[in-house]
Amino acid sequence: MVKSVAILGLGNYGRSLAENLFAMGADVLVADRNEELIRDFSSRITAAVCVDLSVEEEVKQLGLQNMDIVVTAMGQDLAPSVMCTVIAKEAGVPLVVSKASSNLMASILKRVGADKVINPEKESGLRSARVLMSSSFFDFFQIDDTINMAELSPKKEWEGKTIRQLNLRRKYNLNVVAIKKTDGSWKPVRPDEAIRADERLLIIAEKDALESVSQ
Questions:
Q1: What pTM, to 2 d.p., does this model score?
Q2: Confidence of residue 82 (pLDDT cuts 50, 70, 90)
Q3: What's the 3-state SS for the chain?
Q4: What residue ranges define each of the domains in the chain, with the CATH number in brackets?
């Protein structure tokens, strides 16, 4: 199922996130008050709208209620970020992600309803795109141009089966390197131990392999 994502703010992070999400098949709406940026992006994603994100009525006219995900990516601008986060939550958006430039800003955005807060110094557009596009991924790391590491929940059909039974290396071309227990600690992989639904797997795989398990 194609996800619809609105990116509010086209700074470096917003542009990178929009491009990566669109490349992964999402319907992407971007909004910013910079007319030049909007013209540039209009042919590179699904839709681009010139909007003053500090004006409540203009933001409400974006139709955020139709989005699966809304990302507020205005950087240092706390007031517009808070307002857009609140508007998106009130519109019933299932997942609202807010970019924060400090711990204080992150705390405020969480209090007004952000489901996830992204620190621009710790996140890249590609890493966030991977996490947002899959309900299975909890974290994502790009090791090099082809190899990636991801933390994900086991697929439904994996539950109760062992690593040996699943033969994930042959079927998906991925390697499980560790398993995260419910208390947050990691344990080594035991080939004959059954996978539990409440555990998470740390895997290493090529790009195509990750895409196959994120569906």
A1: 0.62
A2: very high
A3: CCCEEEEECCCHHHHHHHHHHHHCCCEEEEEECCHHHHHHHCCCCCEEEECCCCCHHHHHCCCHHHCCEEEECCCCCHHHHHHHHHHHHHCCCCEEEEECCCHHHHHHHHHCCCCEEECCCCCCHHHHHHHHHCCCEEEEEECCCCEEEEEECCCHHHCCCEHHHHCHHHHHCEEEEEEECCCCCEECCCCCCECCCCCEEEEEEEHHHHHHHCC
A4: 4-133 (3.40.50.720), 137-213 (3.30.70.1450)
